[in-house]
Amino acid sequence: MDEQHTQGADPYQDGGEERLAAEGEVALARLVMDGGGLAHAADHLGNAFAADPRLPEAHEALTELARHAGGPAAALELFPADRPFVGAAVCRAHLLAACGEWGEALLLIAKAIRARHDRPWSHVAWLTQDALPGRLSPDQVTQALAHMVTALPDPLDAAGREAVRPFHELVAAVVARHPGDARLAAIGSALARRVGDTGQAVRWAAQAHRLQPDHIPSIMLGYALRAAGRPDDALRVWCAEIARDASDVSLMVDIAELYASTGRAAQGLPWAERAAAAGPDDPQTAPALLGVRYAADRDPAHLLALADLLRTRPEHSYAATVLARHSEGQPWLGAVADATEATVDVLHQLLRSPDAEGARTRQVRLASSAVEPPSAVLAFLMSFPYGEVVQRAAGEPDPREPVGAVGRTLWAYDGLVARPAVPAPSAEAARLVRDTAVVSWPHIPAAYDHGVRLSGLPLADLLGVMVHPPEPREDAQGRRLRAYRPELWVRAVQTSACLGLAHHRADEPWPGSERRSVLLDLLGGPEDWLAEAAAFAMVATAWVDPAVREDVGLRVTERMLAAAKAHRTREVTVLGSLCRLVLLCPWLDPTYTDLARDLLTAIGQDGDADGGAVVGRAGGPPNGAASAAGPEEAAPRPRPRARRRLPWRWRRR
Which of 349, 404, 395 is nearest to 372 (CA)? Predict the structure, then answer.
């Protein structure tokens, strides 16, 4: 059996945790096997294969177990067919292959791939032998594909593609041997599409469609054409199929969403409405209709309706999919909004300079003509701890003063210099926030739910971490943020802490709750990123709890109006973000949401802005960042001056 089991080089590095765990299980299996405990040994071998499917010693031990049991067929009793554990199922697959039961063995490998697609279950010699395609019938391969392909991500990531590569190569060989089997070619195209071979996916799907131009081949051909970047060809195939058979509301949804994803939402809207009318109880149709409507008019009310649908009908998981699709990378919908301060501009220039690392250890002095949010200064000093930021004037109204009466503030000023007004958090709290803070999230309800991880922290720790943020995590994203966008990390920490505050003493009724009181203090405190973070936490609370919407919308709007008033006489860098947050309160009177849109236009921020999620996925510096030489003294580059003339609605008020 050994020559049928092991194949290729070991994908795990020597000494890896999975390899060590598998080796330990094999050692135990051999120990109990020598004592006659075959069933017990089988348990350990199942654990070994689950930990490292390609460990040569595991395959050798399985051969020994079969020999002790009286052969592979007898050893099958040690791994019953009804046992759900994936490691045991893979052992059974290898034993079935040794017995020549190729179809059943392949089916078990497919089920293992369905359970864990990132594991190299198919990297085994018997599955890659040249003779195997001739030993399998098209029906056997089709059945195996049907068990696994729909559970695979579309597309697979690099690790997933490599894990299923031998299975895909086997399918290709079988399709080539049976060019007249439409079902095999059609479902094979689904696997080819997922592994990124869109050319092969189109060829196989077109082959199936020629042989059998009915529903399933038509759907698969459309999917393959869409993945290959040929949306109009996909739409022609799908529309023709709907004209032939109008019973598939899911296909109508696909047509509607493909129109929307290619910038033609108005053409997709009738299809989404048709699908909703034909299948009102279908879990896809209502979310799809809301998503296409949002793509057509960009009204956040449709996204709020998706969130409400997800809240009232959690079994309709497609609502979460559509909501995440339209939230991705969008400020506050799916990511922390970008900072717009001149201090942050200079920070980016210095970090992009050839001498960025050297500047971190020098006394870089930044001179600013006006007071900017202290959190922006905090982000600068996190990157340049020996630096100094000198701000020469406050402006009127004074951004250092709270807006209205507040019970607490997190920043205190010594003249024009801000300092934290609360102690640093405990080390344990800082670690938890460091591990929890995120720059992006799937959608607003998911962000709110994520904040519950911090709900157990004392209030003092949640407040302290906002002005004493921990360093970013030591992972790929954390290193990118530290190197290129430290301000996003500060904003992520503050936002996550405010979301934790939104869960603080959640049993208290909202109107008199401590969480509301603290968030309002942050919202109305000195002009800072903390106001944005608090506003977002309140908006997120309102998205999941309709009872607080009226109050939240009013408070966030009041803060926007105060910022708009200040904008008449000085720069207010948080105004654009506050306007966006007001727009995420679509239950408000249109007077206020229209004003928010007008203000965004007036300050030149009316276009869609990329959120922090885009930066988190990028491999290097942000696009468009200005280069700087990193001088000992730097001054912010002047931004294009925002127009002081406010929208007519504000002037009329």
Answer: 395
The 8-class DSSP code of residue 473 comes to P
pTM of the model: 0.86
Give how far Cα 638 sits from Cα of 302, 346, 459, 529, Å: 38, 10, 39, 21
Helix 486-502, helix 342-352: angle, nearest 10? 130
Q: What is the rounded distance in angstroms from the CA atom of residue 110 to the CA atom of residue 349? A: 51
Q: Which residues pair with 418 in a beta bridge?
A: 413
Summarised one tens digit per residue, pLDDT across range 28-67 is 999 999 888 999 999 999 999 999 999 999 999 999 999 9
* Torsion sign, CA atoms 436, 439, 440, 443: positive
Helix, strand or coil, per DSSP, at residue 624: coil
- Largest separation between any pair of C-alpha atoms in the chain: 93
What's the token pair of residue 51?
Answer: 């930990």
The predicted-structure confidence for 71-122, as pLDDT tens digits, reads as follows: 999 999 999 998 779 999 999 999 999 999 999 999 999 999 999 999 999 9
Residue 108 backbone phi and psi in degrees, to 5: -70, -35
Determine phi and psi for 259, rounding to 5 degrees. -60, -45
Residue 15: CB atoms within 10 A of its CB come to: 8
* Nearby residues of 228 by Cβ (< 8 Å), 6 or more positions away: 198, 199, 201, 202
Residue 188 tokens, joined: 């094979």
